[in-house]
Amino acid sequence: MNAVRDSLNRIGVVLLKETLDNLRDRRSIFSALASSLIGPVLLLVMIVIVGRTFFRDQIENKVQLAVQGAENAPTLLSYLRQRNIEIIPPPADPAEAVRNGDLNIVLVIPPTYGEDFSKGKPATLQLILDSSRQSAVADIQRVMDLLESYSDTMASLRLMARGISPEVITPLAMERLDVSTPQTQVLVFLNMLPYFVILVVFVGGMYVIIDTTAGERERGSLEPLLINPVHRWEFVLGKLGASLPFALLALVATLAAFAICFNVFPVEEYVGFQLSLDVKALVGIFFISLPMVLLASALQMIVTTFTRSFKEAQTYVGFLPLIPALPGIGLAFMPVKATLWMMLIPTFGQQLLINQMLRSEPISSLNVAVSTAITLAAAVILILIAIHLYQRERIIFGAR
């Protein structure tokens, strides 16, 4: 019992020493906090931009439509005006205006339109557009939908004038029930939250790990520390523990920033509807992410044992978040239904659970338990590997 207490005391001494040293290092604190703000701010900006383009502009703002030959189709233009389309004069060169981005779309009505329409023939219309310009997609789609709707209406009126029911040309009655809302459509961007959580988990305590290992080796202070009456495993656990508060600080700051951005910032003024994040879901995300914090620190400590300088360690450790974070990017655009075997993949299982929490989907307690156990087991294995590496005297010079 006394031996355990002594070991805990020695681990606590190492942990306290490294924590206090890094608290004096503004770089460690700044990196932890700066990395925590990137994700929330970036997602907020993306949602505001997309919301103004695809939601609010479609609902409230008029679409300007330049029409060449407007005198040839007065009924069509009246139909468009009633549906919030502003008709403006055409430019001298419509194709060039669209190509340069001066106009999103131009409607050309040829002189033969009225004659063909009166005779019941297909009346030709020409749309000049640039489908590669993303900022014009909403306007283009809206104009095309209205023109198709006008065409369907005129076709029905022609049939009725001939005593034929419009239902004759509609063999199928398609009913589309879209249960999505503007809020759930915007969730495609919030689905990137697991990606930013992974980055923060790895970056939050990164500089502490690098400084307490490769940094001390480079400064020549590692050898004096190792000759102290402290077991190597106590040494490793102490240094590992010193990185955890910084990583947790970054994680808490990130989730708090997400809560502030989407619950306090007036997003509805830009996207036209209320968008918020459930605080309970953010709390759940914090606890689900805890095993990943330990895993990240253990993995970083192993990598830094093979480096000789702070700069070299920073280069190698900087690539680590990319591997587990890549699935998070895929989940944003290709949602995957969580299954039990997926929980056996460390960090990937957590990202799936985070995604489910954001969408308010039911979460299996078994999935949570398996994902947590597997990730913690992987972290323990990595810690044992780090302890083994620090048992070797070559650790002083970099374990090559």
In short:
The chain is mainly α.
List keywords for this structure.
2 domains, 400 residues, abc type-2 transporter like fold
Q: What do these coordinates show?
A:
The chain is mostly helical and 400 residues long. The protein has 17 helices and four strands. A four-stranded mixed sheet has the order 2-1-3-4. Helix 1 crosses helix 11.
Instruction: Using the alpha-carbon principal axes, give the shape.
Output: elongated
Secondary-structure content class: mainly alpha
Order of helices and strands: HHEHEHEHEHHHHHHHHHHHH
The number of helical runs is 17
Number of domains: 2
Number of strands: 4
pLDDT below 50 for ≥5 consecutive residues: which ranges? 56-60
Report, as a whole number of angstroms, the end-to-end distance: 38 Å
Fraction of residues in helices?
A: 55-70%
Radius of gyration: 31 Å
Main sheet?
A: 4 strands, mixed
Strand order of the largest sheet: 2-1-3-4
Strand percentage lies at: under 5%
Q: What average pLDDT do the residues reach?
A: 77
Outline the fold blueprint.
Blueprint: H1 2-23, H2 26-59, E1 63-68, H3 74-81, E2 85-88, H4 94-99, E3 105-108, H5 113-118, E4 126-129, H6 137-161, H7 182-190, H8 193-204, H9 206-219, H10 222-226, H11 232-263, H12 268-271, H13 279-304, H14 310-319, H15 322-333, H16 348-358, H17 365-390
Parallel strand pairs: 1-2, 1-3
Antiparallel strand pairs: 3-4
